[in-house]
Amino acid sequence: MSRTVADATRFTATSPHAYSRTSSILRSAANTLSSSSKTQPNPPPNAHPPNPRSPQNQPPPQQPETPQQKVARIRALRAAQKLNSLTLWDRTVIRGRRYADIAHRITIAGLMGATVLAALVTAFSLTDMIMYNRRQRATYLAAQSAIYDQTLQTAIEAERAGKPLTEEEQNGEDGVAGGGGEGGTEEARVGD
């Protein structure tokens, strides 16, 4: 939906007098009035009292307000009016929103921190489990190799001594009864 210029909110006047310098106009008017007052020494006693709106009774002119200052002044006035028109419930809701926003930010930061912490714990645990598994496998394989070497050494010594070998020793198995080990042959299993 297109908006026209007439629909826009105007904070400053757009007529030419809003941007013209009034200080030079006021100074020239003050000079004219002051020079005319010098020519008349004393007013007659029955003369009218001075007009309070006349330039003689007004304070000296101030610097003209810039558009930015005008916008800031109008916004500050509007904010003050809005603040004065708020009820106790509205102020409580606004304060509660502020605290809820702070709590929300703390919660989000906590959740993000917990996520990072959980990812670090997961990475550490996974690495530790992999290393532990490799150590245990190496220990197991070393123990099995030692058992096989001991069985082989016993078999070699028994053969040198001329003792008859048991069936497991003949098949080179590492102590598994019934010929079901890895080192057994098909003939030994059929013989059972």
Could you walk me through the main structural features you see in this protein, from its secondary elements to its overall organization?
Residues 175-181 and 184-192 have low confidence and may be disordered. With 192 residues, the chain is mainly α. The protein has helices at 23-39, 67-84, 88-161, 167-171, 186-190.
Summarize the amount of helix as a percent range: 55-70%
The biggest sheet, with number of strands, parallel, antiparallel or mixed sense and barrel status, is: none
Q: Please indicate the percent range of residues in DSSP E strands (runs of 2 or more).
A: under 5%
Query: What is the average of the pLDDT values?
Result: 75
What is the number of helices? Answer: 5
Distance between the first and last residues' Cα: 94 Å
Radius of gyration: 52 Å
Q: Total strand count, please?
A: 0
The 3D shape can be described as rod-shaped
Low-confidence parts = 175-181, 184-192
Order of helices and strands: HHHHH
Q: SS-based structural class?
A: mainly alpha
